[in-house]
């Protein structure tokens, strides 16, 4: 990294946006790849013919195919996070990106259910993109972490909105648009044989291009790599070699913010790790380093002429003394990170937030698309998508312009506490929207499947649905972006990747548990004889319980975990 870039980073308090942009594109691709499958799953299972003529079997095979990707991520996330602390964030991210893009293209060329299942499992096992991007953006953002997380959230929200809609438009073109669509005129055409190729190839190719962009324009962000254990030395080829000159002097990007404004209680956690060691980078001509001692922290800058073997012929520098903690206390604090209360609170808070929202996003379409006679709102899948798009559009504007201000005013923990209260309210009030439906306004619905009921909705229900969508998405953004910052604050720098991947693994587990639990509850409660409102209300209690757990964890978190930066 050049001296000019170092000075730019130091002056800005974080990385230039051109370094962050490739990561946002990768996060957009990750969100698209996760969400685009959902509107296609039923049609894919039917195309593979694995379920035969049994409609119940279609649901079973669909659920298995949907859950394998997050389940595979759950089993491997911690390993990739641990490995990133040794080889760097960038190699682990690129492995996941290229596996995801290649897997998507192969999925479009698949005509067999078990082949598709294998591709999803392998893609999930190699994928730890989200937790790595959280680490990199946090390490690059410096004092602008709230703004960095807001961009991260916008990229994810945009991907979740565009992925399913574009995938649905491009899928099965010969069936949707007939022989007029290019490539569908012949009876046994390529797009007839592989009806999902366009959807998966388009996003797969875009993912690979984004990965190549990130590979060349995003620097490594980890400050100091740990040595690989001897049994894993074969993975050393993933570690990039950086440097120049006859000896190849090493150079690494420094994004660590040495000191920020904070109260006395949280200052020691803001300043990072104080240890007796020196961290430095040099290109043979200039160098900068940080010396951590038991008495203080020295920031060292040196410059000099390059010697005949790439060493410094002479140097001059300056040193700034800053307060530091004791070596023994810090070493004890970081070696036992898994047993630390604050780490467990942060990661299980992330788990509860993920569990609520993935369960709620699975349950609300079931409730909305159910017929009025069955206790639902008689909405078609595209009707639910309309309200989700309204909420998502408002969320993008909120995230860009208001979220950083909310962080500065209330802090991350305050936003999570407010979000947990909102989640409990949503869990209670959502099934009560059924009371705003006048059943006599709806026609007889015998045999109607996926028919729109928007034209029969009252104006009051329209307003409530729009507000419901906005509150769900806005508070969801508050919770997810804030809890990422809380996890980062609780993470010891030496184990930053491991802790973030541990949190991501639990979030992946929530994505396996949530849909299965609420789907089973919805089916089971539908068989209960008696009050229809009771049948509808009981599944939402599962969401309410996860929101209450979120509330308890947020209030039990130590105050120094909050951030207003």
UniProtKB/TrEMBL annotation:
It is found in: Membrane. InterPro entries: MFS, MFS_dom, MFS_trans_sf. The keyword Coiled coil does not apply. It is a multi-pass membrane protein. GO terms for cellular component: membrane. Its main location: membrane. It comes from the Eukaryota. The chain crosses the membrane at residues 21-48, 60-80, 92-111, 117-137, 149-172, 196-216, 343-360, 384-403, 415-437, 460-487, 536-557. The keyword Nucleotide-binding does not apply. Gene3D superfamilies: MFS general substrate transporter like domains. Residues 19-565 form the Major facilitator superfamily (MFS) profile domain. Pfam families: MFS_1. GO terms for molecular function: transmembrane transporter activity. Keywords: Membrane, Transmembrane, Transmembrane helix, Transport. This is MFS general substrate transporter.
């Amino acid at each position: 990294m050049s001296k000019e870039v170092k000075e730019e980073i130091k002056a800005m308090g974080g990385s230039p946006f051109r370094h962050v942009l490739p990561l946002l594109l990768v996060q957009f691709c990750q969100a698209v790849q996760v969400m685009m499958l959902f509107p296609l799953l039923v049609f894919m299972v039917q195309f593979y013919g694995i379920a035969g003529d049994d409609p119940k079997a279609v649901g079973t095979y669909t659920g298995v195919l949907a859950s394998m990707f997050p389940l595979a991520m759950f089993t491997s996330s911690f390993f990739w996070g641990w490995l990133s602390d040794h080889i760097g964030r960038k190699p682990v991210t690129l492995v996941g990106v290229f596996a995801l893009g290649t897997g998507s293209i192969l999925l479009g060329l698949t005509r067999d259910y078990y082949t598709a299942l294998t591709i999803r499992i392998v893609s999930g096992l190699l994928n730890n993109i989200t937790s790595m991007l959280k680490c990199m953006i946090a390490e690059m953002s410096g004092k602008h972490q709230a703004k960095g997380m807001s961009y991260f959230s916008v990229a994810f929200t945009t991907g979740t909105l565009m992925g399913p809609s574009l995938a649905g438009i491009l899928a099965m073109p010969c069936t949707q648009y007939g022989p007029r669509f290019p490539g569908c005129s012949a009876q046994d055409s390529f797009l007839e044989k592989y009806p999902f190729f366009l959807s998966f190839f388009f996003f797969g190719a875009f993912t690979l291009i984004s990965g190549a962009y990130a590979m060349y324009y995003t620097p490594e962000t980890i400050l100091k790599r740990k040595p690989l254990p001897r049994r894993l030395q074969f993975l050393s080829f993933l570690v990039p070699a950086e440097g120049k000159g006859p000896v190849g002097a090493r150079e690494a990007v420094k994004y660590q913010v040495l000191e920020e404004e904070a109260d006395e209680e949280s200052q020691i956690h803001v300043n990072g790790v104080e240890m007796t060691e020196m961290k430095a980078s040099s290109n043979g001509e200039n160098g900068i380093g940080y010396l951590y001692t038991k008495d203080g922290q020295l920031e060292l800058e040196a410059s000099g002429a390059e010697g005949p073997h790439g060493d410094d012929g002479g140097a001059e520098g300056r040193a700034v003394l800053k307060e530091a903690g004791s070596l023994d206390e810090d070493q004890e604090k970081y070696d036992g990170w898994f047993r630390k209360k604050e780490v467990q609170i942060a990661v299980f808070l992330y788990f509860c937030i993920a569990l609520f929202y993935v369960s709620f996003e699975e349950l609300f379409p079931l409730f909305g698309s159910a017929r009025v006679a069955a206790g639902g709102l008689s909405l078609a899948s595209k009707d639910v998508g309309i309200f989700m798009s309204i909420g998502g559009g408002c969320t993008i504007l909120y995230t860009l312009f208001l979220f950083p201000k909310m962080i500065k005013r209330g802090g991350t923990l305050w936003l999570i506490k407010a979000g947990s209260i909102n989640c409990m309210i949503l869990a209670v009030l959502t099934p009560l929207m059924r009371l705003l439906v006048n059943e006599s306004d709806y026609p007889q619905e015998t045999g109607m499947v996926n028919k729109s009921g928007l034209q029969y909705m009252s104006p009051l229900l329209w307003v409530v649905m729009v507000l419901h969508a906005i509150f769900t998405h806005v508070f969801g953004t508050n919770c997810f972006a804030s809890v990422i910052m809380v996890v980062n604050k609780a993470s010891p720098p030496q184990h930053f990747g491991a802790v973030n991947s541990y949190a991501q693994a639990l979030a992946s587990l929530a994505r396996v548990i949530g849909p299965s639990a609420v789907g089973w509850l919805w089916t089971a409660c539908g068989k209960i004889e008696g009050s229809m409102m009771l049948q509808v209300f009981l599944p939402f209690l599962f969401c309410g319980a996860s929101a209450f757990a979120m509330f308890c964890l947020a209030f039990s978190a130590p105050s120094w975990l909050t951030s207003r930066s």
